[in-house]
């Protein structure tokens, strides 16, 4: 799969969404992040585009992927500061990639939001957010591995940090093994544009670790994130 876009950023992360067959709804410290869906987010390959090299390539085994933590926030949100502090304390020395989504629709105070991130949040987590909070996007909300949602600032256990620690320790439940590769070629001659780059990736070596009857139900889709 290949896509051509202008070279405007310094790094990006590939986080494929993985259809999974495991249900964690019996755990009491979070909500199901994808309402009535068995899916999650897996990945976290990063490539820095800040040097002068024309070709960048990275391959990462699924066992080495970081925990993906997505946080819906806003610059004016006071509770978000406390929640994000507890989240960071829970992460500790764990390998984690944190992605912040800032409010954008009808927003007058927070300048960091974007239509694409609002769309992604509502598409993936909107239904669960409505079920838990009464709205499709409210700050603060934290989602871990695209599977476990921590809505609001009130803990489900004795404290919020413990909620996050428990959730992070579960890890991704995607029934897959293998690796993902990601490549970037700057100023590629195909584009006829010296300011453009070609991004390509492969998930062909990812394999389901389940019986034959579940292989057809496991699918992936890619999300390119520029930060």
Question: What does this protein structure show overall?
Answer:
The protein is an alpha+beta fold and 227 residues long. The chain has a single domain (2-226), classed as Glutaredoxin (3-Layer(aba) Sandwich). Helices cover 21% and strands 33% of the residues. The chain is built from four helices and 17 strands. The strands form five sheets. A five-stranded mixed β-sheet has the order 4-11-10-8-9, with helices on both faces. Strands 1-14-13-7 form a four-stranded antiparallel β-sheet, with no helix packed on it. Strands 6-2-17 form a three-stranded antiparallel β-sheet, with no helix packed on it. β10 and β11 (148-151) form a beta hairpin. The chain starts with a strand and ends with a strand.
Return the structural class: alpha+beta
Oligomeric form: single chain
Principal-axis shape: globular
> What is the helix/strand order?
EEEEEEEEHEHEEHEEEEHEE
Tell me the β content. Answer: 25-35%
Number of domains: 1
- Helix segment tally: 4
**CATH architecture identity:** 3-Layer(aba) Sandwich
Low-confidence stretches: 1-26
Q: Given this structure, which CATH class is correct?
A: Alpha Beta
- Strands of the widest sheet, in order across it, are 4-11-10-8-9
Roughly what percent helix?
10-25%
Largest sheet: 5 strands, mixed
How many strands appear in the DSSP assignment? 17
How far is it from the N-terminal to the C-terminal residue, by CA?
21 Å
Radius of gyration: 18 Å
CATH superfamily: Glutaredoxin
